[in-house]
Specification:
The protein has 116 residues and is an alpha+beta fold. It has one domain: 2-Layer Sandwich (HIT family, subunit A). Helices cover 22% and strands 21% of the residues. It contains two helices and five strands; from the N terminus they run αβββαββ. Strands 1-2-3-5-4 form a five-stranded antiparallel beta sheet, covered by helices on one side. A hairpin with a 7-residue loop joins strand 2 and strand 3.
Length: 116
């Protein structure tokens, strides 16, 4: 899979997820589309714990207002859930430090106790 080679001008150069999207930090990609990438969480909370990250930077889901990016993000979430879980999974967005967000780049957690 090929990562995006150019960072959107809105992206934060210090953001670890922007660096992953740009290919500056290696990761094992699970899936990718035009608008998002998916990779394993470094600190899994379940046997299946995949992060799905839009390629453009926004701090959280409330700030991701690009409709193409939202659609692409959810298309990739559906693909990852369908191919990497047994169909039963949790979909989680943490928004804000109090609610457990530790990387301030929109991302979804796909968690499941059973892989496919």
């Amino acid at each position: 899979m090929e990562l995006a080679t150019k960072m959107n001008e809105e992206e934060n150069l210090d953001c670890i997820f922007c660096k992953i999207v740009n290919g500056d930090v290696p990761t094992e990609l699970i899936a990718e589309n035009e608008h998002a990438i998916a990779f394993l969480d470094l600190y899994p909370k379940a046997p299946v714990h995949i992060l799905v990250v839009p390629k453009i930077h926004s701090d959280n889901i409330l700030q991701l207002d690009n409709s193409s990016s939202l659609i692409g993000l959810f298309e990739l979430i559906r693909k990852v859930a369908a191919t990497k879980t047994d169909g039963q999974f949790k979909l989680q967005f943490n928004t804000g430090q109090r609610e457990g967000q530790s990387v301030f780049h929109t991302h979804a957690h796909v968690l499941s106790e059973q892989s496919k």
